[in-house]
Amino acid sequence: MATGVWISLFLYFGVMIAIGLYAMRTSTSSSEDYMLGGRSLSPKVAALSAGASDMSGWLLLGLPGALFVSGLASAWIGIGLFVGAFFNWVFVAPRLREQTVHYGNAITIPAFLANRFPTQALSLRTVSAIVIVIFFAVYTASGLVAGGKLFESAFAGVISVEGMTDYAVGIVITLGVVLAYTVVGGFLAVSMTDFVQGCIMMVALILMPAVVLFGEGGGGYAQASQTLNEVDPTLLSWTEGLTIIGWLSAVTWGLGYFGQPHIIVRFMAIRTLKDVPIARNIGMTWMGISLIGAISLGIFGRAYAVRNGLDVADSETIFIVLADLLFHPLITGFLYAALLAAVMSTISSQLLVSSSSLTEDFYRLFLRKEAKDRECVNVGRACVILVGLVAAFIASDPESMVLALVSNAWAGFGAAFGPLIILSLMWPRAPTVPVPSQAW
């Protein structure tokens, strides 16, 4: 492996850990600081943190892989997600920011729901926390699978550990770096690293499709379209071979946004209510550019592979294959860092939300009601490690598919929390008397 690749990756890892150490010194003194950043996120950090924690490895692996195989019909997933994210910012973000403070200053989604519906508080909070921990273990596993695939494809045989495959080594390295900055720095570290990672991801998704399409061997848009038509004319069709059920399944992915705790918790942490529209505009612009880049990478990557005789055994590794083939090692390392950024930004967010639920909605609720903030911060750190190890076990199967794991967790969260969050924020007959969170 070229030295330039390692230089880029070590710089990336170093920046992530440095941010974690900075956050540890400034925002880990209380539970609210560690789990919600003291509700002090600026609009740009909140926007890119929400986007980067949403757009996991599926953005650079799963979605391009689906486009690579089935063409533009799979792009409806991205369109549905864009529309769903917009409505999430419009309807959920401002109300959740305001009401989580108003109803007992809740710092977790289960605590907010318990305060909002006090007659069912204990059961609602407990079940919500269980759902969060179970599905985030699966969701986190999807990110570790992406990290494992990166190291298996790009670093085969470079990092050898006796008794471990390249895939397993990739999982260990990915999880280890994420744990390093998440455990020490908490929510602020996760959000700040998300911001940096979101910028890296967007640049990569502009650079890669442009080079694939217009660089040497690309041939431009006309040539790429001709190649795809020769392979399979349906690849350039938005509807060919797509049933009504298939189309609905794709576009309704966006409805899941209302119930994704790792995304909507960013709304709770925005600095002020008036910052929400600014964050929305920044976040939607970032998401639009990133989705267009991922769709272009998948469809034009297929044309490039055909024209140049590339054998892509796993469609979800097209980003990795092209990064290694087309760029100088320093740029290749940057592109690998972009993939790791997509993976790590989501893993860290999911680990922290799971840890928050285990700490606030189990430990503090049932085991140690009188636990002080410092104790809860330390318990939260232990829970981050615990959930990470469970996710690593789930991800240990190298045949796992990123998009399949994401779809299971996404659907689970969307069904479990989506309707309840909407009702709690917008139903006029819901309880309106604030209930202190300590009551539960």
UniProtKB/TrEMBL annotation:
<keyword id="KW-0997">Cell inner membrane</keyword>
<keyword id="KW-0769">Symport</keyword>
<feature type="transmembrane region" description="Helical">
    <location>
        <begin position="401"/>
        <end position="423"/>
    </location>
</feature>
<feature type="transmembrane region" description="Helical">
    <location>
        <begin position="278"/>
        <end position="300"/>
    </location>
</feature>
<keyword id="KW-1133">Transmembrane helix</keyword>
<keyword id="KW-0406">Ion transport</keyword>
<keyword id="KW-0812">Transmembrane</keyword>
<dbReference type="InterPro" id="IPR038377">
    <property type="entry name" value="Na/Glc_symporter_sf"/>
</dbReference>
<comment type="similarity">
    <text>Belongs to the sodium:solute symporter (SSF) (TC 2.A.21) family.</text>
</comment>
<feature type="transmembrane region" description="Helical">
    <location>
        <begin position="235"/>
        <end position="258"/>
    </location>
</feature>
<protein>
    <recommendedName>
        <fullName>Sodium/proline symporter</fullName>
    </recommendedName>
</protein>
<keyword id="KW-0915">Sodium</keyword>
<feature type="transmembrane region" description="Helical">
    <location>
        <begin position="73"/>
        <end position="92"/>
    </location>
</feature>
<feature type="transmembrane region" description="Helical">
    <location>
        <begin position="376"/>
        <end position="395"/>
    </location>
</feature>
<keyword id="KW-0472">Membrane</keyword>
<feature type="transmembrane region" description="Helical">
    <location>
        <begin position="126"/>
        <end position="147"/>
    </location>
</feature>
<dbReference type="InterPro" id="IPR050277">
    <property type="entry name" value="Sodium:Solute_Symporter"/>
</dbReference>
<dbReference type="InterPro" id="IPR001734">
    <property type="entry name" value="Na/solute_symporter"/>
</dbReference>
<feature type="transmembrane region" description="Helical">
    <location>
        <begin position="6"/>
        <end position="24"/>
    </location>
</feature>
<dbReference type="InterPro" id="IPR011851">
    <property type="entry name" value="Na/Pro_symporter"/>
</dbReference>
<feature type="transmembrane region" description="Helical">
    <location>
        <begin position="195"/>
        <end position="215"/>
    </location>
</feature>
<comment type="function">
    <text>Catalyzes the sodium-dependent uptake of extracellular L-proline.</text>
</comment>
<keyword id="KW-0813">Transport</keyword>
<feature type="transmembrane region" description="Helical">
    <location>
        <begin position="167"/>
        <end position="188"/>
    </location>
</feature>
<dbReference type="Pfam" id="PF00474">
    <property type="entry name" value="SSF"/>
</dbReference>
<keyword id="KW-1003">Cell membrane</keyword>
<keyword id="KW-0029">Amino-acid transport</keyword>
<keyword id="KW-0739">Sodium transport</keyword>
